[in-house]
Amino acid sequence: MEKGAKQIENLIKSIKKKALPPLIPYITCWDPDLDTTSAILWELAEIEPACIELGFPFSDPVADGPTIQKAIVRALQHNPTFEEFFEFIEKLNSQNYPVPIVCMTYYNILYRFGLEKTVKYAIDSGLSGFIIPDLPIEEANPWLKVNKGKGLATIFLVAPTSSEERIKKIAKVCSGFLYYISLTGVTGVREKLPEDIIQRLILVKNFSPVPVGVGFGVSKKEHINMLSPYVDAIIIGSAIVKIIEEKGKNAPQEIKKFLNSLK
């Protein structure tokens, strides 16, 4: 099956028709090691996510809070390379991994590796796309140009502070899904979500030709019940990464149990 932006968009729509909006889990690759990452990914496949965000660790993760920062520190102890990341994706896909995977990392990684080389390696490995949190729309043209027509998802983030004009600009070039950040600040589990989140989601969905996913702070069944009527997918990151921090190599089954409890 061809992987990429269209597959993610179609999966979000088809899963949402059957039940609640699909979950999109996030984990950091190499946390705590590559074998455990692989085991977690195979467990995650069983909960029928629309895609999985797999973080490639970077030393200055400006969008991430303490939980994911610690995961990145654990992962960096393995001295991972971008080539090894693509080899890992290729191996998963050679075993018929059923879920599209998008790489969440920072622009410096892609820039240093080479933008054209990144696109080639991504396509050859079967990666479905990228989330690049520190790439603003104003500086995205070089990346969008090399990726044009290649089918890879480029998932941009929209913030609670984004103007209507900016949301429209971002929505035009998003593929796969548009990532709405539920709150100002960094990733991390929150007890409550902002009071105006529903109105913001309605606004963003009106402007977006692709599905809208919401993340940052989403960690409870109450959050999901509240957001489900207004969103196409729900992104869970820090709550999963916290389980990995606590359970280590025993995390895969615990993560699946946790995510099933949210449905």
3D architecture notes:
The chain is globular, with a radius of gyration of 17 Å. The protein is of the alpha/beta class and 263 residues long. It has one domain: Aldolase class I (TIM Barrel, Alpha-Beta Barrel). It is 48% helix and 13% strand. Strands 5-4-3-2-1-9-8-7-6 form a nine-stranded parallel sheet, sandwiched between helices.
Summarize the SSE layout with pairings.
Layout lengths: L4 H14 L4 E6 L5 H12 L6 E4 L10 H11 L5 H13 L6 E4 L2 H7 L1 H11 L3 E3 L9 H7 L5 E3 L1 E2 L5 H10 L4 E4 L15 H11 L4 E4 L5 H7 L5 E4 L1 H10 L3 H12 L1
Parallel strand pairs: 1-2, 1-9, 2-3, 3-4, 4-5, 6-7, 7-8, 8-9
Helix pairs in contact: 2-12, 3-11, 4-6, 11-12
H-E string:
HEHEHHEHHEHEEHEHEHEHH
CATH superfamily: Aldolase class I
Count of the domains: 1
Q: Give the DSSP E fraction (strand runs of 2 or more residues).
A: 5-15%
Strand order of the largest sheet: 5-4-3-2-1-9-8-7-6
The CATH topology is given as TIM Barrel
Report the total helices. Answer: 12
Main pleated sheet: 9 strands, parallel
Q: What distance lies between the first and last C-alpha atoms, to the nearest angstrom?
A: 27 Å
Radius of gyration: 17 Å
Q: What share of residues is helical? A: 40-55%
> Could you say which overall geometry the principal axes of the C-alpha atoms support?
globular
Query: Mean of residue pLDDT?
Result: 92
